[in-house]
Amino acid sequence: MHGRTRKSKEELEDSEYLDNQKQEIARYRSKLDTVFQQRNEKRFTSDCLKSTSELLNLNPELNTVWNYRREILNETFKGLSKEEKQQKLNDELEYINVSIKKNIKSYWMWNHRQWILANMPSPNWNQEAKLVDLLFKLDATNFHGWDYRRYVMSKIQETEDKKVVINREFLYTKKKIDQNFANHSAWHYRSKLLPVILENEKESTLSKEVEMIIQAIYSDPDDQNAWLYFDWLIGFEVEKTTMYNLGIDIASELLELEPNSKYALLSLLKYNLALNENEPISPETKKNYLEYINRLRNIDSLRLGLYNDMEENVMNL
Amino acid sequence: MSQEYTFEAFDTIIFGTGITEALISSALSKAKHKVLHLSDKKNYGESKVSFEFVDFIEELIENESEEYENVEITFNPFKISDKESKNLDIKLDSLDVKNETLDTTKCSQKTKQLLDKIINSSINVINFDGVDSIENLEKLTKCSKMYYIENYPVLVKSRSSFVNLLISTNLGQFLEFKGLDGNYIQWDNTCSKVPDSKQAVFSDPFLTLKERLALSKFIKYIENTKLNGFENSLDQEYLNIHNLLEKKFNINGRSLAALAYSICGSSSKKSDVLPSDGCKSILNYVESIGRFGDMAYLYPLYGGSSEFSQVFCRSSAVAGGTFIMDAKTTKIGESDTRYLFEIEGMLKAEAKHLVVSPRYCATILNKAPQKRKTSSHGVYILEGNEGLNANQTMLMCVSQLNNKDLENPVYFLQVPSSSKCCPQNKCLVYAWTVSQNCNSDAYKTIKQSFEQLALSKFIVKTENEDDDTQSDENSYSKDVEREIEVVFSVYYTRLEYKSLEVEVDENIHLPKDEANNFDLDNCIKEANKVLQKINPDIELV
């Protein structure tokens, strides 16, 4: 886990600590046994729900127990009115709200949250969107949050105009990128939204995106995100030649100012190769490619194997 | 008339409650030294003091020519707005208040007394407009105790040695801070954030691609020096921080001003901020970002920089130090190893060591150090909570009108609207400028910059919590019609004592006053020097 200090060797061997650990483990074991016994006996009472809560508080990574919890809840829903079911699920949401704060990176809890909302007679998806936004104030790069946000938005799109939602989300990613342009999740989400955005204003959108990419590249040539996003942009184009040429231009211009930019050299090589994919290349061009590879070897000695491999491929052209 | 006083022997007597003296006092007392700490003033802080409103005006009046010069005061409300922007000339029709028939019948006793003092003093009152001005003054004096004014505002960086010291001595718990919301540079009638991080460089709407690259390379250079240390040759190869940024990193114009002024506190292209010192400031600034809040600077609440001195003095007193404020001290004797003083109405005291801050050298050592003009200041009270922009706590640096050489920046600090920093529903803004600007025209320069700033467009990324998803892509550019109403302003130039440059006995210690608006770390160095001489075993922590 991030941000937690590791216990020192002395602390780990401290007898008081060890005793506490033993008691903790015994407590956990007994709760575990209780829950599994109840499950085997197919008991679905509110007491059983309570014991799952106690166990999950100790260890939220037990998906079987989350499943059992859902079985219990489904059982208790039988014969309830919509309002009563909503109330039960609201309580459950309250429970997960508290627990999820303790372990923001647990897959099972996000999964459970999704289940709660999906089973609610009247789920408040906008509330969920706000919650994700709150989470991003703490950690804007949490991919569970981004995943969940996409799910929430797909639900909101069922009742609201899809284009409006997507446009809003597109602006939202820009805002997150403006706060931290090394936020890979935000760039990625943006690329997922692009196809819908491009349906309307292809030309102007693309040129704006390229402008933003260039801005990001010059603000930190060593950050991979913007280069990667450019690759994704190429993917949306049918006629790729223009994009390859654009990529080559961006990379060459940066290289003039920054001769040791790794990503510029890589891009130059990649887009040139793609551009001339099915054509024979002149010895002159080949020489250029080999020179780029050589420069890459010098500035990025950790990936010698990769560059040797590239060299071999170029030699065989 | 001679009087019989009790006699008490001390290890060290300290004169003056500046931050350096307070640090020394605290460390000595904690090491069981017997300390007598004296000040002839009522407030802590020596040269950096906070006062309630009425006391602040009285301080300026009483110490004019001793510690302040060119005091200009306006308590007639005036407005600066977009519509009148073409008419920027400064009215200099300083009215002679003494000849006005003042209708003070509606005033409180406190205001009357203050008004009397102002009229009988030699400070200038500008744009005095009888009834309006008096009514206005009445409002300000009425709640005088509800806020304070600093004669020299100080900001500290989150990761400075001073803040680290507050934490390691556990004294930080007695202070409260507010992190600044923003650090701005005013350029071309626009006030925008200083591009001080990679992210800020990316979001900055004004930078060209080349400027972005240059800044990003410089930031990377600074980050690397954290690991590898600074090149030794830096100070030989480059004249000062301006020269380094321009020649080595190709940083010019607004970016240069932003880094050199707003972070290094340099005052001109000819400044004496060494390249290595400038880089260290920037490194410390960059490291400070994110420690407590998003910005590097912290502003002390509930008492401003006086609190810095007071918190260390208090810890000295808790550890056994004796404090006498407002003390009248005369030297009555001296032997080879002891100095003897009489503190009027209190006691006779002797000590082996003396720590004397510059202002006390004349009375204690009979050697008056020279005075110099160090900085010129302005204090503004604005109507409403908004202040210059959006109720933010911020530092703004204004480069001079039509000044291509980037000389003499004027700094503005808008302080928080809570925690006694401002009168209720008003906003307090401090302004200051150093060195060359400190002539009798200083207030004109500051006033011009203030008007320039008041009419500037602020480029602020709006962090509106509620309509997060609604924000338009260009919403960071905010262009509103502005009108700033100033209800009180005062200008003054500060006179400070230079450190005494003469040989003194080895047991007399003369710490220099080297604190500035952005840095108290020099106080720690000075305090350590003195402690080293008194007893090498004593440390600040």
From TrEMBL, chain A:
Catalysed transformations (reactions) = geranylgeranyl diphosphate + L-cysteinyl-[protein] = S-geranylgeranyl-L-cysteinyl-[protein] + diphosphate
Give the GO biological process terms. Answer: prenylation
Instruction: Show the GO MF annotations.
Output: Rab geranylgeranyltransferase activity
Which UniProt keywords are present, listed alphabetically? Prenyltransferase, Repeat, Transferase
Pfam families per UniProt: PPTA
Task: Give the enzyme class.
Answer: transferase
Task: Supply the EC number(s).
Answer: 2.5.1.60
Q: Which domain of life is it from?
A: Eukaryota
This protein's GO cellular component annotations are: Rab-protein geranylgeranyltransferase complex
The answer, when asked if Transferase is one of the entry's keywords, is yes
Keyword RNA-binding attached: no
Q: Which family does it belong to?
A: Belongs to the protein prenyltransferase subunit alpha family.
The free-text function statement in the UniProt record for this protein reads: Catalyzes the transfer of a geranyl-geranyl moiety from geranyl-geranyl pyrophosphate to cysteines occuring in specific C-terminal amino acid sequences.
Annotated protein name in UniProt: Geranylgeranyl transferase type-2 subunit alpha
Q: Which organism is it from?
A: Furculomyces boomerangus
Q: What is the lineage of its organism?
A: Eukaryota, Fungi, Fungi incertae sedis, Zoopagomycota, Kickxellomycotina
Automatic annotation (TrEMBL), chain B:
Per the record, the similarity remark reads:
Belongs to the Rab GDI family.
Q: What is this protein called?
A: Rab proteins geranylgeranyltransferase component
Q: Which GO terms describe its molecular function?
A: GDP-dissociation inhibitor activity
Q: Gene Ontology terms, cellular component aspect? A: cytosol; nucleus; Rab-protein geranylgeranyltransferase complex
Name its GO BP terms in alphabetical order: small GTPase-mediated signal transduction; vesicle-mediated transport
Q: Which domain of life is it from?
A: Eukaryota
- Pfam families assigned to the protein according to its UniProt record, in alphabetical order: GDI
Against InterPro entries, the record matches this protein to:
FAD/NAD-bd_sf (IPR036188), GDP_dissociation_inhibitor (IPR018203)
